[in-house]
Amino acid sequence: MPKPPAWLPWLGPLLAAGVGAAVGEYGLGGGFWTVLVAALVCGFAPIVVYRVWVWRRHRKG
Q1: Mean pLDDT, all residues of the chain
Q2: Which residues make Cβ contacts (< 8 Å) with residue 35, sequence separation at least 6?
Q3: What is the enclosing helix (H) or strand (E) of 48?
Q4: Is the model's pTM score more than 0.85?
Q5: Which own/partner pairs from 22-28 qualify as long-range (CB within 8 Å, at least 24 positions apart)?
Q6: How far is CA 9 from each of CA 6, 26, 28, 61, rounded to the nearest angstrom?
Q7: Cα 1 to the chain's mean position, in Å?
Q8: Contact 40, 17 (CB under 8 A)
Q9: Can you tell me the distance from the alpha carbon of 59 to that of 39, in angstroms, rounded to the nearest whole number?
């Protein structure tokens, strides 16, 4: 399994801002809580993906 890119966790803030703006402007009514939840979920997604990738890479040897 290849090594995960080191920049992957740094996509979180950029992705959170982009998704929060998109949801606020175009989708789901754009209420405060909807935008906050969407931004938090999408902001932490790259960090979680990176950690799972590293965990699986070390587990397989």
Answers
A1: 88
A2: 20, 23, 24
A3: helix 32-60
A4: no
A5: none
A6: 7, 26, 27, 22
A7: 21
A8: no
A9: 31
- What percent of the chain clears pLDDT 90, i.e. is strictly above it? 48
Q: Say yes or no to pLDDT of 55 above 90.
A: yes
d(CA 14, CA 5): 16
> Which pLDDT band, with edges at 50, 70 and 90, does 61 fall under?
low
- How big is the chain by its Cα radius of gyration, in Å? 14
Which residue type does 14 have?
L
Asked if residue 8 lies in contact with residue 49, where contact means CB atoms within 8 angstroms, the answer is yes
